[in-house]
Amino acid sequence: MALISPAFAGFVLAALAVYYALPGRGQQWWLLACSYLFCLTWGWTSALVLVGVTVVDFAIAVRLRPSERGARWLLRVGVTCNILALVAFRHAGPWSAMTGSAGPWAAIGLSFYALQGISYLIDVQRGDLPAERDPVAFALYMAYFPKLLAGPIERARTFLPDLACARDVDDAVIARSVTLIVIGLVRKIVIADTLAALIPPSAFTTPALSSALAVCIVTYAFALYNDFAGYTSLVRGVSGLFGIELSPNFVTPFFARNFTEFWSRWHITLSHWLRDYIYLPLSRALLRRNLSRYNVANIVLPPLVSMLVCGAWHGPAWNMLVWGGLHGTYLAGERLLRLGRAAPPPQQRTAGRQAVGMAVVFTLAVFAAIPFRMDLGVSLAFLRGLLTWRGWGAPDPRVVLLLAVGLSLDWTQYRAGDELVFLRWSRLARASLLAAAVAALLLVPYDGRTPFVYQGF
Amino acid sequence: MIQAPGSACSPRRRTFKLTTGIGARTAGLALGFLAAALIAAEIIARIPAVRVRLLVPGLGSSHRQFEIEMARLEDFVAEHGTLDCVFVGSSVVGSGLDPEVFRVAHAGRSGRDIRCFNLGIFGVGASAEAAIADVVRRRYHPALLIYMVNLMDLGQAADRSTAAMIASVPWVRYQRGEFTIAGWLADHSAAYREYLAYRNWTTLTYWDDLRDARAIEIRTRADGFVSAFEAGRWTDGNVGRAVVCRVDALAAARFSEAALHGLDTICGFHADGVRVVLVEAPAPRVRLTCSRLARLHYRQFVDLVARRAAAAGVPFWRTLARGPISNEGWADSAHLNATGAAAFSRWLGEKVAASMSS
User: Fold this and answer.
1) Global confidence as pTM
2) ipTM of the complex
């Protein structure tokens, strides 16, 4: 069941109608049933893998005692199970490479809930979180349908306590949720899909035969961002209607002034996961050997390894590793440049320096998007194309218009420091914006056949 | 409010509680704005000075030339009040039958003026032609319907590729008695029709499509005739002969059941008070020199049409045996050029006049 479809809208409305009428415990059972029903619409394999991973993680976690000697081994077993499931059943995994398609072995959302399972087991083993004794609550943590397809990657230590709380859905919550849904739809349908449709397919398959390659890759970067940000906004809005708040994943990343800031604004739940479970443990281990602030290994390795893992998570392919390696290099380079001198935080720099920082980060992020989008051979051909005049044609006016719309939306949120700044506008302005958004959605033909990009990861 | 992640819980109570309805007021106001914008768009789209600057209205099909022809037909009927006769068929008709020459020839023979519209739609087969003819019959009540049938109309390839393109369009279904909201909107709202004309603005090939559509608009006359071809381009050489004979062999080998049903549908309009005439589309003389098998296939086609026309009580006029078109009248192996179209239209106009007077 596609998220942007009449079927999903009907599914959510039906789920809400029953949900509001149920008492607390019944609500969890109901949400779990809805989540598995939603999962089943993506195939039996998806549901079976979800059950399997959930049962294994739940069973291992209740046996994990932080103080016990065997806890580390049990944790390793649990983490290995999640990784094995990820390798065997993920959408773009080896099965699909062998069969040539996603096939019957693909398990939707596995990349995301497997990370949730791993973080849960580690937190329990560390003693940061008691093992969840309620199987319904834990199963819901893993399967909750608004976040099942592509996150956000929630943490058990925030999600599970929230489940136990009363959930209030009042006017303000509905206004926030509907605003998020409308923003999500505009980002996905109006901006992302339209931009993606305006990129000639040959640009990313046979760049030697294409022109205006620079415009194509910039357009792709904006399409990708708006696609995933639109997805996140949409599912957070839907979840809000159930009174359950999901974590934000994007905060105007193209206005980041350095790469550390970029990764605190782009796919936030994944970057925080990488920070907490790879970067910081590795950095602590390296610092135990050498506490010096000039410990180059500690400066370079944690960001590089974290981003290489990030690349591998996106897909077991060399181009993804190159993408991750580039971002790791950017982060490490940034830390090396700051070494030995006190740099003011980005927001305290002059406007000019902030703008330069934004331009540099944006350019390098778009450059890294080349191997993200294409395999290495095509990426090299693409780069060769960029070195010729042919690679630098003028953009289509429609691309310019859509980029302007997307950037205006981002700029408004960035300036206010609030993604829901529109709710603070006057009613007349809010209504005008809502009418404009609905009109834009009506004016863009949507065939529902373009899935969210991150559903594929 | 939503609980902040990790904050202390309050006792569970009712989840859903609307109080002030602030969101509803904003949504209501937004709906009002939208309604106002739609009304303004509708008014603007109906202003003649604006209309001439916009694309020809769409109907929701992916066949732009069909939409342009239907728009021209609407204007034609609005200008003349009635539609005496309509020519239906494929591009063979579109560029092969000139209503003006036909009118003059008809008037010369009968002394009566006749207003005809050429509704030849590029690339369509008999299924789609039947749907189009049905729409015209219901909407404009023509007295005479001339269907110029050629062998390709009944072949599977042409029929299958265009039948869905035309017959499944909501506006066409609406015109044929099936209610659809999109069809109703396309029939009643000028703004919606303009939206349909521009709706593909997000496609990669939009500018090219727009240019092509503009070119077709320019080439399509007010009476539907498409002046598509220059005179005397095609030469009756070996290549042309090979094309004609191969097309005949392929098409006749696979007649489409749906297309034959379309042919029967058109013939059936005769029983509903429309005078229907089937005319064999003219073909180059080289057709007579094709292989025995190709000639056999062509013979099968002619016999098939003749049988079905006779069963419905509809006349079927042959053209090939008479060979009204010289080799200089062909634009390519299937389409007449301006010279050929004039000769053929004259011949048909006189024949229709003679037939009516008898």
Assistant:
1) 0.84
2) 0.76
